[in-house]
Amino acid sequence: MNDNPFVRTFLNWEVIMETFPRLLAEGLRNTLLIAFLSIVVGVFIGMAMAVLLLSKRWWLRFPARVYVDVFRGLPVLLTVMLIGIGLPASGFRPFGREAFGYAVLAIGIISGAYLAEIFRSGIQSVEPGQMQAARSLGMSYGRAMRLVVIPQGIRRVLPAITGQFVKDVKESSLVYILGLGVGQRELFFIAQEEVARTYNSSPLIAAGMCYLAITVPLTYFVNWLDRRLRDGRAARHTPLDDITPVDLAATPGSPR
Question: Which of 105, 146, 184, 234 lies 20 to 30 Å from 37 when distance is taken between CA atoms?
Answer without folding.
Answer: 146
